[in-house]
Write a structure and sequence with these properties.
By secondary structure, the protein is mainly α. The chain contains 3 helices and no strands. Helix 1 packs antiparallel against helix 2 and helix 2 crosses helix 3. The radius of gyration is 19 Å and the shape is elongated. This is F1/F0 ATPase, Methanosarcina type, subunit 2. It comes from Candidatus Accumulibacter aalborgensis. Keywords: Membrane, Transmembrane, Transmembrane helix.
Amino acid sequence: MNETLALLLAGTLGGALGAIFFGGLWWTVNKGTSSRHPAMFFLASLLLRTSTTLAGFYLVAGGDWQRLLWCCLGFVMARPAVTWLTRLPPRDPLRSPPEVSDAP
């Protein structure tokens, strides 16, 4: 029973790491495009998100491959959750301006 609890905790912590990673990616794309130095902004974000995630995997796994597997599973499951939470509202075709085309 104790091992099952440890695996569930590893999966939950993996989900938290995934939420940090993918939520940080969403935030970076939203804020980085209007930055004065977008390349540096994206690079710094990548390094911070990756190092945080890898350090979290290392600490959660603790040398046990099963905990690492559950942590990775939680990480992967966080992606659709973050994608769903950060989706844009549907566009109303009656209120949006018509699209302009430069093609003849």
